[in-house]
Specification:
single chain, Fructose-1,6-Bisphosphatase, Chain A, domain 1, D-Maltodextrin-Binding Protein, domain 2, 2 domains, 7-stranded mixed β-sheet, 5-stranded mixed β-sheet, 16 strands, about 35% helix, about 30% strand, globular
Length: about 260
């Protein structure tokens, strides 16, 4: 049932969200990693809170976080927490409310519990395998209505680069920040689909994948392969997510329009 794990996770993610909201009001510092991704004191504060709360209650679980040096002992753990303390740090720095904290509990490579929290909008999503998905504790479902034009959430960077131009005639394209938040929005039916044909990290998508699946949708890579998490190499090649009814339409568009392009 994961009752205890769910309670601890929701408490921890809200505590972390309150802390990064406080830092956004009162001030934070930012630097850049070797790969040029931004890193703020808010990322580190959220990571510390989540690690203390989750591993404090479940000390035998493994840990994989964007902001923690990887400990490969996780590969031998029965369960592993996969964490992005702030997915959408660029948006967080700019004050754009399209970032989120993303946490998934993985067992045998599969997400069994997940939460995505956007403290700027006070949207708390969570899902439990074989039990459902919720937004602020109300059940959610993917949008399965096939309209003349589908609403697709796109990466702001990819959109600015023109990667979505070939999809714009058939669909309504909405640029959006965090991929974890985009997946949560798909799970709650606020858009039809999202996809990114470039590499992502496990912590970007693990929680969102379970949200979409438990809301009646499909989330795979661009070759329709299911994800297996807690891998030695933590990058995945792409992600495509929508309701089951919309997925064949989206996949057909990708095959037609993308023509093998791999996005940066």
């Amino acid at each position: 049932m994961l009752t205890n794990e769910t309670s601890v996770l929701l408490r921890a993610i809200q505590r972390a969200g309150n802390e990064i909201a406080k830092l956004q009001r009162e001030g934070f510092t930012a630097a850049y990693k070797a790969n040029h991704d931004p890193l703020t004191t808010a990322d580190l504060a959220a990571n510390q809170i989540l690690q203390e709360e989750l591993l404090g209650c479940f000390p035998h679980d493994g840990w994989l976080s964007e902001e923690t040096v990887d400990n490969f002992n996780r590969l031998h753990c029965k369960r592993v927490w996969v964490v992005d303390p702030i997915d959408g740090t660029k948006e967080y720095i700019l004050g754009i409310p399209e970032y989120a904290i993303s946490v998934a509990l993985i067992e045998a490579g599969i997400p069994i519990l997940a939460a995505v929290f956007n403290p700027a909008t006070n949207e708390l999503y969570h899902a439990i395998k074989n039990q459902g998905a919720w937004l602020n504790h109300y059940p959610i479902k993917c949008n399965c209505s096939a309209q003349m034009k589908l609403t697709i959430l796109a990466s702001r960077t990819e959109f600015a680069n023109g990667d979505w131009n070939s999809f714009a005639e058939q669909n309504v394209i909405k640029p959006m920040g965090s991929i974890a938040y985009k997946l949560a929005l798909i799970a709650s039916g606020q858009a039809h689909a999202t996809f990114s044909l470039g590499p992502k990290s496990e912590w970007d998508i693990a929680a969102g994948v379970l949200l979409v699946q438990q809301a009646g949708g499909i989330a795979t890579d661009q070759y329709q392969r299911d994800f297996t998490f807690n891998q030695l190499h933590t990058r995945v090649n792409s992600i495509v997510a929508s309701s089951q009814e919309i997925f064949p339409i989206i996949y057909a568009q990708i095959k037609t329009e993308a023509r093998g392009v791999v996005y940066a």
